[in-house]
Design goal:
By secondary structure, the protein is an alpha+beta fold. The protein has helices at residues 13-37, 47-59, 78-90, 106-109, 118-129, 242-278, 290-318, 324-349, 359-369, 377-388, and strands at residues 135-138, 154-158, 161-172, 179-186, 193-199, 205-209, 220-231, 235-236, 280-281, 284-285. The chain folds into 3 domains: 13-113, Orthogonal Bundle (Butyryl-Coa Dehydrogenase, subunit A, domain 1), CATH 1.10.540; 135-240, Beta Barrel (Butyryl-CoA Dehydrogenase, subunit A, domain 2); 244-388, Up-down Bundle (Butyryl-CoA Dehydrogenase, subunit A, domain 3). It is built from 10 helices and 10 strands. The strands form 2 sheets. Strands 1, 2, 3, 4, 5, 6, 7 and 8 form an 8-stranded mixed beta sheet that branches. The protein has a two-stranded antiparallel sheet with strand order 9-10. This is Acyl-CoA dehydrogenase. Its cofactor is FAD. Residues 16-132 form the Acyl-CoA dehydrogenase/oxidase N-terminal domain.
Length: 389
């Protein structure tokens, strides 16, 4: 694919048309909607503000677009999905995470569809696909992040119910979700974990506001379970499949997070070019100085390398090939390269780039997080090295 900052997918007319439709929706509808509500990346959004986005995105065919047609999607390829995800974050939309259903929607739940019973699909997952309910995924605990096997949340069978005790943190979408996919250790078993569908309004379940990350986004929550009873029918998959369900989803997410990171870095690059063209220093636009031109060139080169790696890996997924190593490589390189881009964007903006409320400053904080969230760069290096040893 020839490098352009605004990607050209003319070799694939269907994808090119989808990209054009998405850009139109973002520019003509979603961003004006956000501006009317006064939303910023640090606004604590409400369910009432999100539901119109879910419904409109579904009307346009974007919400859950990657799902198979029998589940209401278009069976979109991973390659095309990555293209859409980059485009979403490249335009600076606050609610871009809700257009495809990343935040509480079909993409959040999509990977677990294969484990769900017909009853679970009908009660929990199909309403998510229709934009009627929202879900979150809860596996991380205060002492069980990269090492998930240290989790202390337990589940034990009591008649026709499971009793869950413990707590989860950093559950994205928890503040407005209806239910959670919870991974817990089976009580009395050191190495047996299972996944459950847990209604967040059930007795014994409490959702608390999570800590606000450095990005300022208030989209995470902590969940406490104190003798929470859930029907045995809410076991997802089989007993002992919890880590397969959870970690399998995480591996794919490492790839699918990458185009969103690239889009945010592309946004930082675009803002830097605009600033350099209009900022006058000693009678000349900043962009005429070679030092600035070299920064922009390095930023564009990192974008090209990251995008090429991600799209090549996405194409491998579509061919049915294993990408467990490549997914770690994509997340590692993308997180590191895109943070470099954000750092240079701040440098180009000077004092303005250090000012709270400046979009580049917020992008810098957001992109710094991705060197840690969804797997630290060190964890990715460990996984890559282990596979190559």
């Amino acid at each position: 694919m020839t490098f352009t900052l605004d990607p050209d997918y003319s070799a694939d007319p269907k994808l090119q048309d989808l990209i054009a439709q998405l850009r139109r929706y973002l520019i003509e509808e979603l961003i004006p909607y956000e501006q009317k509500l006064g939303l910023t990346p640090e606004t604590k959004v409400t369910r009432a503000q999100l539901e119109p986005v879910w419904h409109r995105s579904r009307e346009l065919g974007f919400y859950g677009i990657a799902l198979p047609p029998e589940l209401g999607g278009q069976g979109l390829s991973t390659y095309a999905l990555c293209a859409l995800k980059e485009e979403l974050t490249a335009h600076g939309s606050v609610l871009s995470h809700s257009v495809l259903g990343d935040m509480g929607g079909p993409l959040r739940a999509g990977s677990i569809m294969q484990y769900a019973t017909p009853g679970q699909l009908e009660k929990y997952l199909m309403p998510v696909i229709r934009g009627e309910r929202a879900c979150c995924f809860s596996i991380t605990e205060p002492d069980a992040g990269s090492d998930v096997r240290r989790m202390r949340t337990t589940a034990r069978l009591d008649g026709d119910e499971y009793i869950i005790d413990g707590g989860k943190v950093f559950s994205s979408a928890a503040p407005f979700a209806d239910f959670a996919i919870v991974v817990a250790r089976m009580d009395g078993e050191d190495e047996q974990y299972s996944a459950f569908l847990v209604d967040l309004d059930a007795p014994g379940v409490t959702v608390r506001d999570g800590e606000i990350p450095m990005s300022g986004q208030q989209i995470e929550g902590d969940i406490d379970f104190v003798g929470a009873r859930i029907p045995a029918a809410n076991l997802l998959g089989e007993v002992g499949q919890g880590l397969r369900i959870g970690i399998g989803r995480i591996n794919m997410n490492r790839l699918l997070h990458s185009p969103s990171i690239i889009g945010a870095a592309r946004r930082a690059w675009t803002l830097s070019v605009e600033y350099a063209r209009t900022r006058i220093i000693n009678g000349r636009p900043l962009i005429q100085f070679q030092a600035i031109q070299h920064k922009l060139a390095d930023m564009a080169t990192d974008l090209y390398a990251a995008r090429s790696m991600v799209m090549a890996t996405a194409a491998k997924v579509d061919r049915g090939e294993d990408v467990s190593v490549e997914a770690n490589m994509c997340k590692l390189f993308t997180a590191e390269a895109c943070f470099r881009i954000a750092d240079e964007a701040v440098q180009i903006h000077g004092k303005a780039g250090l000012t709270q409320g400046n979009e580049v400053e917020q992008l810098f904080r957001t992109l710094r997080m991705y060197r840690i969230v969804t797997g630290t760069s060190e964890i990715h290096r460990n996984a890559i090295a282990k596979a190559l040893a």
